[in-house]
Amino acid sequence: MESLFSWLEKNVPPINTQKTALVHGDFRLDNLIIHPTKFCVTAVLDWELSTLGDPILDLAYSCIPYHWPKELDFVSKFSLGSSAMGIPSEEEFVSTYCKLSGLGNTPIQHWNYYLALSFFRLAAMTQGIYSRALQGNASAENATSFGNYVEPLASAGLKLALQDQKSPLGKLNSSTCSNIFQPSPKAQMLYKKMKAFMEKYVYPAEQAFYQHVSNPATQWNVPPFIEDLKTKAQTEGLWNLFLPGVSGLSQLEYALLAEITGRCPFAPEVFNCSAPDTGNMEVLHLYGNTEQKKAWLKPLLKGDIRSAFCMTEPDVASSDATNMECEIRRDGNEVVINGRKWWSSGAGDPRCKIAIVMGCSTAQDMPKHKRHSMVLVPLDAPGITKVRPLTVFGYNDAPHGHLELEFKDVRVPASNVILGEGRGFEIAQGRLGPGRIHHCMRLIGLAERSLELMIQRSLDRVAFGKRLAEKGMVQQQIALSRIEIEQARLLVLKAAHIIDTLGNKAARKQIAIAKIAVPRMACDVIDRAIQVHGGKGVCQDTPLANFYSQARCLRIADGPDEVHLEAVAKLELKEALTSKM
C-alpha cells in the first residue's frame, strides 16, 4: 500500500478542468437500483465516498472486475467480455461511455492511473473493514476475512500502474528504469548527511567501542557514547529510516543508506536501524493493535528500549518452523509459555525489555500452519531464565548478545498475542521480506569496508622486495572482490525495487537469491582481506575477524542457504511449468 501510494502521489495526471462532476466513489452494479420495468436506474446507493472531481474516477472503479486478482475468485465464474453472456469487454465498455458522454473515440489518457487509484481506494476500504473486525465493531459477519484481500488488491493496483513493460527488474515502465538509480532528493540528502555523520562521529568511536566490549568488566554494559550518538542522529533526522511509513523512503532508497551503516558493526543502532529491532518494529507497525503499539512500538521507535526475537530452538531443526516445540497455551485471560529458545539476539542488552516469542498450541487437529502464535513477552516476566550467551566464532557480541532463554510457566495477558492466536506464520511471512534484505544491504557495506582495508594493506605492505599491490595474485584478489561486490549490490537493489513496486510476495525469489549470494560474497571478500593482512587479519588489530564471524553467521540466520536454494529451485520450476500451460 505504501509503494502504491508513493507511485500515485508521484504520477498524478493533469486535473480535468473541462468537466467536473459529482463522483460517486463506489460506483458499481450492486450500488444501483434498477427500475422494475424500464431500462433505467432509479437510485444510486452508498454515497459516503462521494466528492467533486473527474467522472473518469467512477468509470475506472466500475471496471475493477476486468482486473480482479486471480487469487480472489469473486468474479471468476463470469466470462467478462463474453458476447455469449452479453457482457462487454473493457474496451467496449469504455468506448460506449466515451461515445455517450461526448468524449468521442479519443483514448482516455492516464487510464491506468485511474484504475490503480481505484484499487488503492478499494484496498483501503477493505483494510478499514478488517480493522473494525479486530476492534469487534464490524457489521459484516465475514469481516475478519477481509484482511486477506488487502495485499492482493494493492498488488493489482501496482501491476496496473506498471503493466505492459518488460524488464529484467520486473514490470517496470521506461521512466522507472531510468530512475532506478536516481534516488529522490530526500534520499540523496540523507545519503550525504549519513556519510558525513559516519566520518565525523562513528568511525572515530570504533576503537573505544572495541575496547569497551572486549573488557569483561564493561562488555555487558552499553558504551556511554552510543546514547550520545543516537541523540545526535535523531537530531539530524537520521532516524528510523528503515520503515517506509515513518521515513518516506522506498526500500531501494533505504538500501543505499543501509549499506553505509553496514560498514561499522554498531552503526545501525546509532540510527535505530539495527536487527532484530527493525523486524520487531515492522511486526508491531503492521500487525500490532493500538495498545501494543503504545506500550512497545512507541518506545522502540524512540530508541528508549530494545527488543529480542525468539524463534529458533536448540532441540529441533528450526529451519522448518513446524518443528517448533515451545508451547503457547491459552488459560483464561492469559497465555502460558513453556519452552527453550536460543540465538535470541539482543536479549543480552540491559535495555532489552520485550521479546516477540513464537510458539505453537498443543491442538493436533489444527492445520500445522495455523497452530503458531507470536506473543509479546516482557523479559522481566516471572519464569524467564537467561541460560547463557552464545558465541559466534568466540565473539559474544556484547552487549547485544545471542542468548539461550528458558520459559517455564511464563504467564502474560492474552491481549499480548499479536494479531490473534494461530496467526504466527502469517506474521512471519509478512516480516520476511524487508528484514531479510536489510541484512544483505548492510553486508554490502561490510564487504566494501573489507575491500578498502585489503587495498590499503596491499599498498602499505612490502614482501620480497615489492609492495603486495604489485603482485599479480593480490591484484587478482582485489579485482574479484570488486566484481563480486558489484554483482551482489545489483541483486540487492533489484530485490528492493521489486518489493517497492510489486510487493514482498512478488520479490520472494529475488530475496532468496540475495540471501544466498550476498553472505557468500561477503565471506569470500573478507577472507581475501584477511589473507592479505596475514596474522594481523585474524587478531584484534583489525575488525576483519569480527566481520567474518558476522558474515558467516548470516548464511545460517533467517534460514540456511539450503532452504533458500530449494525455494529458488521450486519457484524456477513452477514458472517453467506455468509458462507451458
Structure description:
The chain is α+β, with helices and mostly antiparallel strands and 581 residues long. Helices cover 48% and strands 13% of the residues. The chain is built from 18 helices and 13 strands. The chain has a four-stranded antiparallel beta sheet, with no helix packed on it. It has a three-stranded mixed beta sheet with strand order 5-8-9, with helices on one face. The longest helix is centred in the last third of the chain and has 37 residues, at 424-460. Residues 164-179 have low confidence and may be disordered.
Mean pLDDT: 88
| Overall body shape | globular
Give the N-terminus to C-terminus distance in angstroms: 31 Å
Query: What amount of the residues lies in strands?
Result: 5-15%
Name the helicity range: 40-55%
Helix/sheet category: alpha+beta
Uncertain runs:
164-179
Number of strand segments: 13
Gyration radius (Cα, Å) is 27 Å
What is the topology?
Layout (H helix, E strand, L loop, with lengths): L1 H9 L10 E3 L8 E3 L6 E4 L6 E3 L2 H7 L27 H11 L10 H25 L14 H13 L11 H6 L5 H30 L9 H12 L8 H4 L3 H11 L5 H4 L6 H11 L2 H13 L3 E5 L16 E5 L2 E12 L6 E9 L11 E7 L5 E7 L11 E12 L10 H37 L1 E2 L2 E2 L4 H31 L5 H26 L10 H10 L7 H20 L1
Parallel strand pairs: 5-8
Antiparallel strand pairs: 1-4, 2-3, 6-7, 7-11, 8-9, 10-11, 12-13
